[in-house]
Amino acid sequence: MMTSTNGVIWDGLDSETNFELSSLVVGNGIFVAVGGYGPILTSTNGVHSTARQSGTRNPFLGAAYGNGIFVAVSIDLAANGCWMIPSASNSRLLL
Fold first, then answer.
1. Residue 23: which domain range?
2. Which residues contact 52 (CB under 8 A, 6 or more apart)?
C-alpha cells in the first residue's frame, strides 16, 4: 500500500500482509482493504493498518460500504465469502 498527500509523491506503507490486495474502500472514517487468500486490513488514518481475521483463505475480489456496513465479496460465497465490519472494534462474518 502507498499513501500521498499530493498525488505526485508516494510513500510505501507496511500493509500487515504479504498477500496481494485487490480492493480498498473508505466509509465512516475507516479504510478497509481486502485481497487474495482472505486478508482484511482496517485503518482509521490510512497510514497504519490492522490485520483482521476473515475466517477464509478464499481470495476477496472487492469490497463496498453502504448504510454503515462494509462487505467484502469472495469467489466462493458458500465458504464465508462475505465479511461485515460495522465498526473498527466489532467485526463478524456473514453467511
1. 2-94
2. 40, 41, 42, 83, 85, 91
